[in-house]
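Two entries, shown back to back:
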Amino acid sequence: MAAVASYDQLAHQVEALRKENSHLRRELEDNSQHLSKLETETSGMKEVLKQLQSKLEQEAGTLASSGRSDVLHQLKGPNH
């Protein structure tokens, strides 16, 4: 009788572990998809920042070449 009860307990534990495993797999998949989305967004933001930096450098060059170094120094701020 003890062997039957212990088999039933083991069967119940196995089923509980299967459910937990299934839940964790879904959670991992969701997290992986979310991480991929964040990586894509980050990559897009980095590209936008590169473009902005390039545009700012062009503008700085234009200001410097037109003799407007006073404006350039104002834009750089007190920390530079």
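entry 2 starts here
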Amino acid sequence: MPIVKLYTNQKVRDSFAVEFSTFLSKLLNKPPFGLFVVIKDQNMMSHDNNGDERVCVLEIKAIKIFNNQDNVGYAKAITDFLSKELNCKQEKVVIDFVDLNPGFVGRHATTVEICEPESK
């Protein structure tokens, strides 16, 4: 159940959220219905004191998906996708991988630890 928040200082096309969700679903080997994707475009952002360049910050949280070795491949694939789709330089794409504790994620009026015991 990855939770994804993408922030960018540019406007994205209407179909981008679905396209990005499909891409992430395949990359992370998760069903599309399990992804929660939030796209926050047209934000005031700056990197290296340059507010005119296209910038993209991705926060992606999940339970038992991320680790130091796999994150390298995920970072490459996600950066390639975002730099192409959003016309953003690769060095202006920043990704924050977060490994979630199942007891700290609420779902189905309880926590994932309770409703999905295999996630422990």
